[in-house]
Amino acid sequence: MARDGRPLQLFRNLNAKIAAIPMIFTAVVIFAGGTIWTVVYSFTDSKLLPRLRWVGLDQYDRLWNTSRWIISIENLMIYGVFSLVFSLVIGFVLAALLDQKIRFENTFRTIFLYPFALSFIVTGLVWQWILNPDFGVQSVIRDLGWESFTFDPLYTADIVIYGILIAGLWQGTGLIMCLMLAGLRGIDEDVWKAARVDGIPIWKTYLFIIIPMMRPVFITTLVLIASGIVRVYDLVVAQTSGGPGIASEVPAKYVYDKMFLGQNLAQGFAGSTMMLLTVLIVLIPWAYLEFGGKRRV
């Protein structure tokens, strides 16, 4: 007890603190410990089993001189840029349309959000069938009379990543729409009334008033999209398995193949560490924007 008769700060909300112990233990020991372990062993020559035989930066040098890794980074950049832009634009437009309080809003919202409830493997398989030239979109269009129509992105090395992008957008845009809709519903109705009274066009209202007011929603959405981009794996495996050849390779698949199929743990750890750095590049600016700015006077 403190001198004034109140319980010590350490023992306040004791039940809640005890209940949080498993989560804290998991975060510290498994996540933080596993991350440190991965980084440490990325500087070794571990093969089938981990071993502490140091090789310095050799694994990273090999990593960035491997064409497969370079292709995976290029694919991730293409997928990431287009996924980020289209997810935000499509999600916001859909949210703005639903925000007009249209009829059957709940039905439309459910339809748009439903793909997010599916696993990425299921989504990848579905779109593999849809984009299959033998019985998918190409086959349907040709049966309608356009026999010269060609649309087989998953079988063309130059555009295969865009076929994967279509599946990713189909699954993830619904969640972005819901986040944006929640942000729009949080805007005070007086803001809309004032904009109408001042005669501001609707597109200017969204662009110069509403979107700046939704800054926290956009930042959170950007973090969610970016984290999903870095760890994209299931869609690629389900749709193309990295093919044709290695044309649709992504970093997560490279790491998995090296660790579990290539029996080269250290090389996989080096790739994992580079992915971790990418995540930190995303999270650190987000943390600064969310928490650093609030301390300013």
Automatic annotation (TrEMBL):
InterPro entries: ABC_transporter_permease (IPR051393), MetI-like (IPR000515), MetI-like_sf (IPR035906). It holds the Pfam family BPD_transp_1. It is a multi-pass membrane protein. The chain crosses the membrane at residues 21-43, 76-98, 110-130, 159-184, 205-230, 269-289. Keywords: Cell membrane, Membrane, Transmembrane, Transmembrane helix, Transport. It comes from the Bacteria. Gene3D superfamilies: MetI-like (1.10.3720.10). GO terms for cellular component: plasma membrane. SUPFAM superfamilies: MetI-like. GO terms for biological process: transmembrane transport. It is found in: Cell membrane. Residues 73-286 form the ABC transmembrane type-1 domain. Belongs to the binding-protein-dependent transport system permease family. This is Sugar ABC transporter permease. It comes from Oricola cellulosilytica.
